[in-house]
Specification:
530 residues; Aminopeptidase; seven-stranded mixed sheet; 32% helix; protease; aminopeptidase; cytoplasm; hydrolase; Peptidase_M17_leu_NH2_pept
């Protein structure tokens, strides 16, 4: 799918399909001329009552514009358009456009927005919506799904002086979409392919193709030399070797933000074996690591002026004769000892060592991402991710980024009162605190390893993937973290927060004697099969 900036009005747009906004029960003023060019067909369609008032509702119909047949996609923005409405409408419009037979679509959502609306944010939202909704994962099917007919998306603006903001927004949306879809690819890849070694290979490839990114992968002896005995205790039941992956992006000045990802590429529960039903979805237990990789991909593409380090601890959690057992006591990299009461609470056992390791980078802040607890799903369902933090300002920053991106996130308590539930008679702590407040006690466990720096923890067990007919990785919370890092980069003062290596072309209005030339920006390639 290719993206262009197109300086044109709806009535002059030559695209096969046109995305046209509706504000409540009426057409916005920006569509008055195209309505006239259709002989009032758009007004008649609205009068039919077929388009619901609900934001994101769509109505698809063919209309004749100045004697030429066009596919009109009317999408409801609502009477008061904010970023939530635009995000909803853009996603609905993208689905409708991709489902059709048109090769090109002109998206005219930006012209209907209020003057004070951030054009860059709007262009990024539209672009990301098309990349997200156009995602397919059919690499492992003997016969690939029929490709969508849509190949070109023209994001329309009405004035030349809007082109710089629109270009920057489209570039940002592309980078974000590439990062999110990279994460989805990694999560959806089957666990016999997506092993710890595979994740390491993906990181190395990213380092080879990305500017300002250095990647280092440590194997089992090197991990042991660091004293990561808690991490290795989880890994020892599997024939797949563990990996500790470090991705160091140097794009600015100052201390780095360190992102730590849980990378259990398959979780059987170990000796504390999970029920068989739904266990196939435990391939998604690496999506904290997948999200870190997706964020790093977007950061590299944008060349954000900020230093970011990605740390991924990755292994499998398998039952075996030498596997970790309930009752075992392990010594973490920090020197603290842990009594293992349940081997299915393994994520915290690898994260505690990764969080200790993160301290060596002298971080500005550390954020870990983990599909950590079923208890978080019970607390928040599949709607919101759980956020824990020992830094109020950091929590507020992350929640603001969540508001911008629509990645719903809820702040959870991290009170010391819960620490008593982790008491052990035989070690410094137990690895579980019982059923009450299970997500909270897991976060409290991690908090014991983050006292030396600013830290936040995302429990994404309920939001990293979907089950049922819509089964698949969601790519959350990549967009949230890219927004967070972009805002931090903007405050750095080094250079603009968003910089694209390649900008979409700006297409001028078509003239009889002139041809418009478009430079395509290709979508990211899916993660390679090994």
């Amino acid at each position: 799918m290719e993206f262009n900036i197109n300086i044109t009005l709806p009535e002059n747009d030559a695209a096969d399909s046109l995305v046209l906004p509706v504000a409540g029960k009426k057409l916005p003023g920006s569509l008055s001329k195209i309505d006239a060019a259709t002989g009032g067909s758009l007004t008649a369609l609205l009068a039919s009552g077929e388009l619901a008032d609900k934001t994101g509702a769509t109505l698809v119909s063919h209309v004749t514009v100045n004697g030429k047949l066009r596919r009109a996609i009317l999408v409801q923005l609502g009477e008061t358009t904010d970023i939530v409405a635009l995000r909803t409408a853009a996603a609905a419009a993208a689905r409708a456009a991709i489902a059709g037979k048109s090769a090109t679509v002109g998206v005219h959502l930006l012209g209907a927005l209020a003057k004070e609306f951030d054009l860059q944010l709007a262009a990024a939202t539209v672009t990301h919506a098309f990349l997200f909704e156009g995602y397919r994962f059919d690499q492992f099917k003997s016969k690939a799904d029929a490709p969508a007919a849509l190949t070109t998306v023209n994001v329309a603006i009405s004035k030349k002086d809007q082109s710089a903001a629109a270009e920057t927004g489209v570039a940002y949306g592309l980078a974000l979409g590439h990062g999110v879809n990279f994460t989805r690819d990694l999560g959806n890849t089957p666990p016999n392919i997506c092993t710890p070694t595979y994740l390491a290979e993906q990181a190395i490839e990213l380092g080879q193709t990305g500017k300002n990114l250095q990647v280092e992968v440590l194997d089992e002896p090197q991990i042991a030399a660091l004293g990561m005995n808690s991490f290795l205790a989880v890994a020892k039941g599997s024939v797949e070797p563990p990996k500790l992956i470090t991705m160091n992006y140097k794009g600015g000045k100052g201390k780095p933000v360190v992102l730590v990802g849980k990378g259990i590429t398959f979780d059987t529960g170990g000796i504390s074996l999970k029920p068989g039903e739904g266990m196939d979805e435990m391939k998604y237990d690496m999506l904290g690591a997948g999200a870190v990789l997706g964020v790093m991909k977007a950061v590299v593409e944008l060349q954000l002026p900020i230093n970011v380090v990605g740390v991924i601890a990755t292994c499998e959690n398998m039952p075996a004769g030498n596997a970790l057992k309930p009752g075992d006591i392990v010594t973490s990299m920090s020197g603290q000892t842990i009594e293992v009461l349940n081997t299915d609470a393994e994520g915290r056992l690898i994260l505690c060592d990764a969080l200790t390791f993160a301290g060596k980078f002298e971080p500005e802040t550390v954020i870990d991402l983990a599909t950590l607890t079923g208890a978080c799903v019970i607390a928040l369902g599949h709607i919101a991710s759980g956020l824990y933090a020992n830094d109020e300002a950091l929590a507020a920053e992350l929640l603001r980024a969540a508001d911008v991106t629509g990645d719903k996130t809820w702040r959870m308590p991290l009170w010391d009162d819960y620490q008593d539930l982790l008491k052990s008679n035989f070690a410094d702590m137990a690895n579980i605190g019982g059923r009450p407040g299970g997500s909270i006690t897991a976060a409290c466990f991690l908090a014991r390893y983050t006292k030396e720096y600013s830290w936040a923890h995302f429990d994404i067990a309920g939001t990293a993937w979907k089950s049922g007919a819509a089964k698949g990785a969601t790519g959350r919370p990549v967009s949230l973290l890219v927004e967070f890092l972009s805002q931090r980069a903007a405050l750095s003062g080094n250079k603009p927060a968003v910089k694209a290596a390649a900008k979409p072309a700006v297409k001028a209005p078509a003239k009889p004697a002139a041809k418009a030339v478009a430079v395509a920006v290709a979508a990211a390639k899916p993660a390679k099969k090994k």
